[in-house]
């Protein structure tokens, strides 16, 4: 099986902003993109992106999950990066157009079609280190993906990092390439030194998120996770899992969580932890590593509530359960 995100549909949807207006949706080859080497994005990182999925239902219909949320988040990231304003109706049309074109290629459960909208600054202007691009380009790539857990479910090991940061404090809620570049080195170091799968960034003891997922602590009937602020990415999966959990009668506490409380609660039998994100939905966390010591979460194995919540979301996405929150868009 090819690595997640390494196979692309041969065409993409694209639109260009010329400084005044957006061109209409065009469908072009996805094998290359022509840019001036002085393009703003290549020098000053005027770029943001999104990740969402389309699902094939048993009846053959293809549905996109919470597209409005991802479109709104790209618009917000663009605004915070001083990129041209995103036309949200246009971006929605670009997404539905390209998914409809490749509807027959959307894999059946447990696979799906990963959708990658991207917005980049295209103005050839290397003098604009401290000024925004006037022109830009949005494109939507498609990548069919298989079962994320094909190798079996394994409880992840997380290094709690209370000294470093994932990215600059004011950039946390922006889904921009630079944030991922910034988290890479600490993550590779944690992999090499303590065989961690991911770093859970906890600047000053405040439990935030990993390089590409939100963190949830599941203590019996209660889910505890950081309340939304500008320091981390507001995951669509986080919001979906919390909504389903509330709907199932669980208590959801969105508040500050500090390392000391996390380690204390994690030691209790039955406690669980998980990472939420579009790619994996909900991935179990079995071990926390802090200042050279390892702390199992509960019994250190894959948690039953984690699996139950993941199944509840997957069933809704694949149309096995009712779309009671109106989260699916028909293609
Ligand atoms: C830094 C970061 N946090 C959280 C998430 C989870 O967001 P979502 O659930 O919208 O995929 C992602 C993944 O997209 C991410 O890159």
From TrEMBL:
Instruction: Spell out the molecular function terms from Gene Ontology.
Output: branched-chain-amino-acid transaminase activity
Q: In which pathway does it act?
A: Amino-acid biosynthesis; L-valine biosynthesis; L-valine from pyruvate: step 4/4; Amino-acid biosynthesis; L-isoleucine biosynthesis; L-isoleucine from 2-oxobutanoate: step 4/4; Amino-acid biosynthesis; L-leucine biosynthesis; L-leucine from 3-methyl-2-oxobutanoate: step 4/4
List the residue ranges forming a coiled coil, or say none: none
Return the EC number.
2.6.1.42
Indicate yes or no for the key word Acyltransferase.
Answer: no
User: Among its keywords, does the record have Amino-acid biosynthesis?
Assistant: yes
Q: Give the protein name, as stated in the record.
A: Branched-chain-amino-acid aminotransferase
